[in-house]
Design a protein that fits this description.
This protein is mainly α. It has a single domain, classed as Arc Repressor Mutant, subunit A (Orthogonal Bundle), CATH 1.10.10. Helix content is 60%, strand content 4%. The chain has a two-stranded antiparallel ribbon. The radius of gyration is 15 Å and the shape is globular. The N and C termini lie far apart (47 Å).
């Protein structure tokens, strides 16, 4: 499915328990909105760089759609990113403790 052909932002973002654990993702992909947001933050909001360096399988339009959706659902996505960060830090601490 090519996102540019979708009529609404709601059609472009899906929740499927078989993809991304049911977290919001871009239709027709396995890329979560939270992944796009994370890369956008990492690259200082440069969406072309996100596409070129991190998510080349997406179109710039798909990346913009994910960012637009995020603006309306910031709390949900920020909570997903916070949980991921906490899991990473716990794993890192456990690895360091095992040394």
């Amino acid at each position: 499915m090519i996102v540019e052909h979708l009529d609404t932002l709601a059609d472009a973002i899906v929740r499927d328990p078989e993809r991304c654990g049911g977290k919001p993702s871009l239709a027709g992909t396995r890329t979560g909105v939270h992944d796009v947001v994370c890369y956008a933050r990492h690259y200082g909001g440069d969406l072309e760089r996100v596409r070129d360096e991190a998510l080349p399988h997406l179109t710039l339009a798909q990346i913009r759609i994910a960012m637009d959706w995020y603006r309306d659902h910031e709390q949900e996505i920020d909570e997903i990113l916070q949980r991921r960060k906490e899991r990473y830090e716990r794993g890192l601490a456990a690895a360091n403790a095992a040394r």
